[in-house]
Design brief:
The complex is a heterodimer of chains A (257) and B (261). Chain A is built from seven helices and ten strands. With 257 residues, chain A is α/β, with parallel strands linked by helices. Chain A has two domains: 154 residues, P-loop containing nucleotide triphosphate hydrolases (Rossmann fold, 3-Layer(aba) Sandwich), CATH 3.40.50.300; 59 residues, no CATH class. In chain A, the strands form two sheets. Chain A has a six-stranded mixed sheet, sandwiched between helices. In chain A, a hairpin with a 2-residue loop joins strand 1 and strand 2. Chain B has 261 residues and is mostly helical. Chain B has one domain: MetI-like fold (Orthogonal Bundle), CATH 1.10.3720. Chain B has eleven helices and no strands. The chains are: A alpha/beta (257), B mainly alpha (261). At the A-B interface, loops of A face helix 8 and helix 9 of B.
């Protein structure tokens, strides 16, 4: 696979989305540099998934626009691939056939290569139904990257996985990102996941960007004090905890056995 | 290796234990005179008339014509049901227009139409074809419709993301997704197919297995009547096996159908 492909840049300008009477996004302004790894965090219902769906072209904005490399997004674009929380593999197609869906010209060799990158080329001829949840998600990842997308959109892709599988997937994504230089927009509600992976963490609250924090930590990220610092800053901001918030006093007596 | 093959043979024989026992019981009760010959003929007599009808070609002719009616009626009714289920499943406006009518017709027992169909077509082939088509139409229509509507919209969205639309989207995503449900419809309608045909041939026919049985009644030929009933049982089992085989070969990906048995 060629390694020269550059990630796409992404800008949103006054991006707004209404569903009926509810305004989910209220003038979202966001700029992402080519090859950057962005994590979007926020409470559920804050509009972060809608942002991703608008960028992917799965929904149309009510007003404003998203631009990919300066070109307005108006519909599904093969340069931007989405990995959803569910793997969404077609259960009636074998693993390799599922990956071929994403390959240019449904090319079989490229599909095998992508499966090799996620470490599943041995399962190419299996039905998706016999794979574990983590393996299915890796196949979905292979399907997303096989067409060399310039922007990878991840919509809580590890949400349904157990903690250890999740760590494996995070490592895999980080590795592929480092090798293939695509831009990543990761939507998650897990702040430590965001800090572990992203160059910048964006906090979305009530349809707007309310925090844009650059994570100045080296890679691979260690869970050290710097890591904890960023995690705390973002978590406090999300939970609206300020230093003068009154906590219940600690009990005066403590008993231990 | 030899042992394994023998065990497989035994496994295949298990479903036939009860039918064989019934025949043995039937043989004993009729030959010892517990059941009189004019109530139920002994099995050997049925076998004898089977051989006789086989030799004079009457059996082949009647079974052939019944099978032909069944298959033709199934194809006509089944394809209309499938197409309508498909159109109404994919296209909400079509459902809005047609579904009420289809549900009203569905609730008329199709066998209740026999008198009017006889008045229209007499006892010709159209009568049987119409009734069989009507009978198989509804299970296939309903299950195709249901199969498409219960398809996961997330998979359809995924298909669109990867460039499927129109006919390819239908062949790669919608149809395979609805297939388990469609096959349930096919299995149901195969049962209804034989049932309808039996009734139609018994009431209004001049050939076929049902006619053979009704004709035998006139001459008090109990053996032929019983033979006809057994033929229906065998044909029904045969078509059910066919449907099962279809499920097994088309739904290999489906965890529920991968068990070997």
């Amino acid at each position: 696979m060629e390694r020269t492909i550059q990630g796409a840049s992404l800008q949103t300008q006054g991006l707004e989305k209404q569903f009926g009477d509810v305004t989910v996004l209220k003038g979202m302004e966001l700029t992402v540099e080519p090859g950057e790894f962005i994590a979007v965090v926020g409470k559920s219902g804050c509009g972060k998934s809608t942002l991703l769906r608008l960028v992917a072209g799965l929904e149309m904005p009510t007003s404003g626009m998203a631009r990919l490399d300066g070109k307005p997004v108006n519909g599904i674009n093969p340069e931007a691939r989405v990995l959803f929380q569910e793997s969404r593999l077609l259960p009636w197609k074998r693993v390799i056939e599922n990956v071929r869906l994403g390959a240019p010209g449904r090319d079989r060799d490229r599909a095998l290569e992508a499966l090799r990158l996620v470490g599943l080329e041995a399962r190419a001829q299996d039905w998706p139904g016999v794979l574990s949840g983590g393996q299915q998600q890796r196949v979905a990842l292979a399907r997303a990257i096989v067409g060399h997308p310039r922007l990878l959109l991840l919509d809580e892709p590890f949400g349904a996985l157990d903690a250890l599988t999740r760590l494996d997937m995070q490592k895999l994504i980080e590795r592929l990102w480092a090798e293939q230089h695509f831009t990543v927009l990761l939507v998650t509600h897990d702040v430590s996941e965001a800090v572990a992976l992203a160059d910048r963490v964006i906090l979305v609250e009530d349809g707007r960007v309310t925090l844009d924090e650059r994570i100045a930590l080296g890679r691979p990220r260690l869970r050290d004090s710097g890591f904890a610092h960023y995690e705390n800053v973002i978590l406090k901001r999300i939970m609206n905890v300020t230093d003068d918030t009154v906590y219940p006093k600690a009990k005066e007596f403590q008993y231990s056995i | 290796m030899d042992n394994r093959r023998r065990r497989q043979g035994l496994r295949a024989a298990v479903p036939w234990i009860v039918p064989v026992l019934i025949i043995v019981f039937w043989h004993i009760s009729t030959t010892t005179g517990v059941v009189a010959g004019n109530i139920l003929p002994p099995p050997l007599e049925v076998v004898r008339s089977f051989i006789h009808l086989l030799e004079n070609g009457e059996l082949a002719r009647n079974v052939g014509i019944s099978t032909q009616r069944a298959v033709l009626g199934f194809l006509i009714g089944g394809s209309i049901g499938f197409l309508l289920g498909l159109i109404n499943g994919v296209w909400f406006k079509a459902e809005h227009l047609l579904d009420t009518t289809i549900q009203m017709i569905r609730n008329i027992p199709h066998l209740a139409l026999i008198p009017i169909v006889i008045l229209w077509f007499g006892i010709g082939e159209q009568t049987k074809l119409l009734l069989v088509s009507l009978g198989v139409f509804f299970p296939i229509y309903l299950n195709t419709f249901h199969g498409i509507r219960s398809l996961d919209p997330k998979l359809v969205e995924m298909g669109r993301v990867y460039g499927y639309k129109g006919v390819p989207l239908y062949f790669h995503v919608i149809l395979p997704g609805a297939l388990p449900s469609i096959l349930v419809g096919i299995r149901q309608s195969l049962g209804i197919m034989w049932l309808t045909l039996i009734v139609a041939e018994t009431v209004a026919a001049d050939s076929g297995i049902g006619y053979m049985a009704m004709n035998a009644r006139e001459f008090m030929r109990m053996d032929i009547i019983v033979l006809s009933i057994l033929l229906y049982a065998l044909l029904g089992k045969l078509s059910d096996s066919l449907a099962k085989w279809l499920e097994k070969s088309w739904l290999r990906w489906h965890p529920n159908f991968t068990r070997k048995g």
